[in-house]
Amino acid sequence: MKNFLSEMAVSHSPNTRWLGKQCQILPAVDSTNDLLKEMMQQGDADLLPNGFVLLTDYQRKGRGRLARRWDAPAGSSLLLSLLFRPGWPAAQANWLTMLVSLAAAEAIAAHTNLTVGLKWPNDVMVQHDNSWRKVSGILQEGGFDANGRLQWAIVGIGINVNIPAAQLPEGMTPPTSLLAATGQTVPRLPLLHTFLQRVEELYDEVGNGRSPRPLWQNKLITLGQPVRVTHHQTNQSFNGIAEATDEAGHLLVRDVSGKIHTVAAADVTLREK
Ligand code: BTN
């Protein structure tokens, strides 16, 4: 497989104004989220501005949500972390995950013929073999200032691009890759550039007072579906219908008694109808 260092050397930089203009590309790291966090703790804030991107070809200890692993063969996928310094109110903290997952869905739709959707809260799904399968996941971490504003956030994203079907990692949500779903190799750089451009546009729209939620909610395959909600800390679960989201991105689930639960962080699986 080609590596990013050689692909980048023959390509143009993304057509963005600020996102990814400062970018570090490393052949292998433990985890781009962890390394970026270490760089922030040690480094000079000016060297790591809003929009800094850390990209790698291979992660030795890629992390998913809920302490899961995120694995991809070297050179097969998009594995990167984006640094933001939003200063947004805490109630808007999830907007970053919303706009990054929306941008990934739109970039995948632009570069393949796949039907793309989002599974709450952070999974990008494509239709493959008549079912929804996970092709990308997002891991957001951040810190708040004394006024409760989101001072910094690292948004890590993995997109399974050219992973052969036989090498797909196992996961609770059935996984796929763009190669497995389309039968074709998908060039990573054009996909990355479309993704970064769209993230930048959606982020700038927040600065102009526009929430990413309406566009994000439109793509949610979870709404209207029977779901099982599992809270990992308490190990409690219940069944219900996912009815809506609120402005903060929480999922509103109606249980069998008719009570609405506001679900902030949990695992949600779609149930058979
Ligand atoms: C999930 O679906 O559970 C989230 C997966 C997030 C994976 C990405 S890959 C780049 C970044 N570095 C990590 O260690 N994780 C994120």
H/E element order: HEHEEEHEEEEHHHEEEEE
Number of helices: 6
What is the CATH homologous superfamily assignment of the largest domain? Answer: Bira Bifunctional Protein, Domain 2
Low-confidence stretches: none
User: CATH top level of the largest domain?
Assistant: Alpha Beta
- Mean pLDDT equals 92
Profile the largest sheet: 8 strands, mixed
**SS class:** alpha+beta
CATH topology of the largest domain, what is it called? BirA Bifunctional Protein, domain 2
- Name every ligand kind in the structure: biotin
Radius of gyration over C-alpha positions, nearest whole angstrom:
18 Å
Helix content: 10-25%
What form results from the Cα inertia axes? globular
As a percent range, the share of strand residues is 25-35%
Q: What is the end-to-end distance?
A: 41 Å
CATH architecture of the largest domain: 2-Layer Sandwich
E-strand count: 13
Structurally, how many domains make up the residues? 2
Give a verbal description of the structure.
The protein has 273 residues and is α+β, with helices and mostly antiparallel strands. The chain folds into two domains: 217 residues, Bira Bifunctional Protein, Domain 2 (BirA Bifunctional Protein, domain 2, 2-Layer Sandwich), CATH 3.30.930; 45 residues, SH3 type barrels, CATH 2.30.30.100. It is 24% helix and 30% strand. Strands 1, 2, 3, 4, 5, 6, 7 and 8 form an eight-stranded mixed beta sheet that branches. Helix 3 packs antiparallel against helix 5. 41% of the residues are buried. The mean pLDDT is 92. Bound molecules: biotin (BTN). Biotin binds next to helix 2, strand 3, strand 7 and strand 8.
